[in-house]
Automatic annotation (TrEMBL), chain B:
Belongs to the sigma-70 factor family. ECF subfamily. Residues 20-87 form the RNA polymerase sigma-70 region domain. Gene3D superfamilies: 1.10.1740.10, Winged helix-like DNA-binding domain superfamily/Winged helix DNA-binding domain. GO terms for biological process: DNA-templated transcription initiation. This is RNA polymerase sigma-70 factor (ECF subfamily). One of its GO terms (molecular function) is DNA binding. InterPro entries: RNA_pol_sigma-70-like (IPR039425), RNA_pol_sigma-70_dom (IPR014284), RNA_pol_sigma70_r2 (IPR007627), RNA_pol_sigma70_r4_t2 (IPR013249), RNA_pol_sigma_r2 (IPR013325), RNA_pol_sigma_r3/r4-like (IPR013324), WH-like_DNA-bd_sf (IPR036388). It holds the Pfam family Sigma70_r2. It comes from Rhizobium giardinii. Residues 112-164 form the RNA polymerase sigma factor 70 region 4 type domain. Keywords: DNA-binding, Sigma factor, Transcription, Transcription regulation.
Length: 684, 173
């Protein structure tokens, strides 16, 4: 598609150049041509045409080539201690150390006298002591003296430029013709600024933030009359929260596109009641509560908890770590963090599980063939050998990883590739589409893919999300070791052992009770209404013990907060087909469709939502419900959602603080800190 | 024909040089226009290239590759021009605020939007896309102009397409 579009570029016909511009260009070109011709004819190599730098070069080259350079080196050996002694002597006698002014004057005068006087130069500027010490063997000649002088001057703190000037004069002297020019060169050098000073107008290029996010419009308020059904796919990713945290910790507001409210909500462990048995993979708990940021609307809070596979019953795992070791990973929050994270994960796995490691950077390479966890030392050693370097060749790496995963394939077990990278994935012949297709195809053969993101500055969030979503995996963003602990160890079960795949949600609202609704978050997860019952449409997966939380803001019929006007010509016929008599009193109807991890046909769970699910005040809602609502408010505020713009950070803080609960791992305390940071950064 | 003109121009024949520049001015202008998307910039760039040509023609070797060389000269000039312009814009913020000085693009159809995105690409990627898609060169010929290997050109094009998708995707959503 892109290809065809690009081909159109060739069809653009440039406008004809104006004849005026054309004539002007031609005339100028002719002038320049003639000027070039003339300069070609002029005698070359005149002094007038020389650049100052060329003088420097012409002088230095023969010096560097001369055989007696060895002599000068010898002389330097002799003179350096002498110079040190001289300095000591001078300072002890209370003489001013910086005698530069005087010396320059002397040098200039002497040199103008010609080559005969040059021998005296070295002796004159320095004191008598210096002259005595400089009696070096004849062989060392003028170069040695010059070197010595440089050394002396350096010791006494004079700018090296002056010394170079003197050297130049000395060596120019033997060729009488060059004498004057040399002098000019010498004095020119003296007035030149120190070479290390960078011109002030060259600024270091500003570092560009190349993180990329796909921007999804915030879900709009929908009218129940025209749009009674809302459909979306489950999302258990948490990458967005870590990214937001990293930005806030770095003292800047996160990019609104990087904030995915549902991922922020789902980051926190909530204690929703779970299902009793494996037969029913998850259970939905619905709470209807008043909206904290709008007195005239309510929130419909749906908490879903997956069945917790007991560790003993967990199937065998075959994990392939696909690790980006490109040069950009050489930062403390990237490769070293990743190594520590994998060590944590290795500790968590069972002895029979196998692990392999593939790296990619320039060339993809297998670092570790499939190895059982009982051979832990070997695995840890392999992790330690990882070194950053080279550029990224993800496609090859992925191929190698799939090869290894197939080789150690565990039937009925968990076969998963854990891709760890800091950014762009693919530098290879294949496009993103090909890559997605490969991952999708491998997913069907039972090998899943999860993505662990590291670092900032080059993170391609959109691609990582797509890869994980197509590979039936999760995308997590790891910025601290605590986060690695959370996503790899505490939640290892859930991201490694899926209990249901292609989990889709559909909520139908009752137009008699609800006028409008708005789904908070899940922008990137929206599905078409008809896709709900289509088993071929891929959707998110839920792992062991996973929690998924979705929140709708609903506007009851007759509320002053209704945004859409009533339709003049009544409700659409479709909504009247719903049997009103039977469903009276119901606010909405929740349907969940899922497949068993190895199944291809879906099952359906349904839950009606009635006034029985409602609580009259915010305080009566459960602690976890309140906390998740606070997170939702915060996420929306960071995204710039209009509905919460009037709700201050302070209120979010109060709401979250009152619902902090036990908070064993400190996740919620950290959230409170982030709200405080955002509050001060946002200037509220 | 070109070969002969070049040879004569190199020996200092001003008529031959004039003819040579005239023959290729439209080509240079067209390339410059594709790159800058703007007639007045294209004219400036073309003029710069003509001047460069006047100074550099004597040093040019390999008459059969004159086109390739012109491409390289033009792309460099376009790049320099763009740089100096963005420097100007940085220095004087009011320059941007003044609607008459803003370098308004000449037309705004869909292809133009795509080109606009191409012009935002990093230098090498933009060059590669221009040469391959805009000028219809093969990857090998583009590599010749850019002075790199064919594989590198393919890579630049691939990267550029990836980036374009993101640039354009964002605008369209």
């Amino acid at each position: 598609m892109m290809n065809d579009e690009l081909k159109n570029l060739g069809h653009m016909t440039p406008p004809a150049p104006s004849s005026e511009a054309r004539a002007r260009a031609l005339a100028l070109a002719m002038q320049a041509f003639e000027a070039a011709e003339n300069s070609l004819a002029a005698p070359q190599g005149t002094a007038a045409h020389r650049r100052q730098s060329s003088i420097f070069n012409r002088l230095w080259s023969p010096i560097m080539n001369r055989k007696f350079l060895a002599g000068s080196a010898l002389a330097t050996l002799l003179v350096v201690p002498a110079a040190a002694f001289l300095t000591l002597e001078l300072t002890r006698n209370g003489l001013p150390v910086d005698t530069g002014e005087q010396q320059i004057e002397v040098v200039g005068k002497d040199a103008s006298k010609g080559s005969e006087t040059k021998g005296a130069i070295a002796a004159k500027p320095a004191s008598d002591v210096a002259a005595d010490k400089q009696l070096t063997p004849e062989a060392s000649s003028t170069v040695a003296e010059a070197e010595a002088e440089i050394a002396v001057k350096r010791e006494t703190g004079i700018v090296a430029d002056d010394a170079y000037g003197i050297v130049r004069e000395r060596h120019a002297a033997p060729s009488p013709a060059g004498g004057i020019e040399m002098l000019a060169g010498g004095s020119a050098m003296r007035t030149m600024p120190a070479p290390s000073i960078v011109p002030s107008d060259i600024m270091p290029p500003q570092e560009e933030n190349r993180d990329r996010f796909s921007s999804g419009e915030t879900n709009p308020v929908k009218s129940v009359t025209t749009d009674p059904v809302s459909t979306f796919s489950a999302d258990v990713d948490t990458a967005s929260y870590s990214f937001v945290r990293k930005a806030l910790m770095a003292g800047e507001m996160p990019d609104p596109d990087s904030v995915r409210v549902e991922e922020m909500i789902n980051y926190f462990p909530y204690d929703w009641p779970g299902p009793e048995s494996e037969a029913e993979p998850f259970k939905a708990t619905v709470t209807v509560l008043p909206t904290p940021w709008n007195a005239n609307t309510r929130l419909m809070h749906v908490g879903i908890k997956g069945y917790d596979v007991v560790a003993a019953a967990a199937p065998r795992a075959n994990l392939v770590f696909l690790i980006d070791v490109s040069g950009s990973m050489d930062e403390p929050d990237k490769l070293p963090l990743l190594k520590s994270a994998f060590r944590l994960l290795v500790d968590k796995l069972k002895p029979e599980d196998t692990v392999s490691i593939v790296t990619y950077a320039g060339n993809a390479g297998t670092v570790l063939e499939p190895t059982a966890i009982k051979d832990k030392a070997k695995i840890l050693a392999a992790i330690d050998t990882l070194q950053p370097g080279g550029s990224t060749a993800g496609a090859q790496g992925l191929e190698a990883a799939y090869d290894l995963a197939e080789r150690a394939f565990v039937k009925g077990g968990v076969n998963r590739i854990m891709l760890a990278t800091d950014g762009d994935f693919n530098v290879g012949p294949s496009s993103d589409e090909d890559l997605k297709a490969t991952i999708e195809q491998k997913r069907k053969s039972g090998i899943f893919l999860s993505v662990l993101g590291f670092g900032r500055g080059n993170y391609n969030d959109a691609l990582m999300q797509t890869l994980a979503q197509n590979g039936n995996g999760t995308a997590s963003y790891i910025d601290t070791l605590a986060e690695a602990q959370k996503s790899l160890v505490e939640e290892a079960g859930s991201s490694l052992f899926p209990i249901a795949k292609d989990v889709k949600f559909q909520v139908e609202f009752n137009p008699r009770e609800i006028a409008e609704y708005r789904l908070i978050g899940y922008e990137t997860r929206a599905l078409k209404r008809e896709d709900f019952n289509n088993d071929r449409v891929d959707a998110g997966d839920i792992g062991s013990g996973h929690r998924v939380t979705a929140i709708y803001e609903i506007t009851p019929k007759g509320s002053p907060a209704v945004l859409n006007d009533d339709l003049r010509y009544g409700a659409a016929p479709a909504t009247q087909q719903a049997d009103p008599a039977e469903k009276s009193g119901e606010l909405a109807f929740l349907k969940i469709r899922y497949k068993k991890p190895d199944g291809n046909t879906s099952s359906l769970i349904t839950t009606p939502v009635t006034e029985e699910n409602a609580v009259p005040s915010l305080q009566q809602a459960g602690q976890d419900v309140r906390f998740s609502v606070a997170v939702a408010a915060f996420g929306q505020k960071l995204r710039g959602t209009d509905a919460v713009s009037a709700y201050p950070y302070g209120s979010i803080l109060d709401l979250a603080a009152s619902a902090k609960g036990e908070d064993t791992y400190g996740y919620r305390a950290e959230f409170l800190n982030l709200v405080r940071l955002a509050k001060s950064l946002g200037g509220e | 024909m070109d070969e002969e003109l070049i040879e004569r121009a190199q020996r200092g024949d001003r008529n031959a040089f004039a003819l040579l520049v005239e023959r290729h001015y439209d080509f240079v202008h067209a390339v410059a226009w594709r790159w800058s998307g703007n007639v007045s910039d294209a004219e400036d760039i073309a003029q710069t290239v003509c001047l460069k040509l006047a100074n550099a023609i004597r040093a040019f070797r390999g008459a059969s590759r004159f086109r390739t060389w012109l491409y390289a000269l033009t792309l460099n000039a376009a790049r320099d021009h763009q740089r100096s312009r963005s420097r100007e814009q940085r220095n004087a913020a009011r320059f941007l605020a003044d609607p008459t000085s803003a370098c308004a693009t000449d037309n705004h159809d869909q292809v133009e939007a795509l080109w606009e995105a191409v012009r935002q690409l990093p230098d090498k990627q933009g060059d590669a896309v221009l040469l391959v898609y805009g000028e219809g060169l093969s990857h090998a010929a583009a590599a010749d102009v850019m002075g790199c290997s064919e594989a590198t050109v393919s890579w630049h094009v691939h990267e550029a397409r990836k980036r374009l998708k993101i640039l354009l995707g964002r605008e369209m959503v």
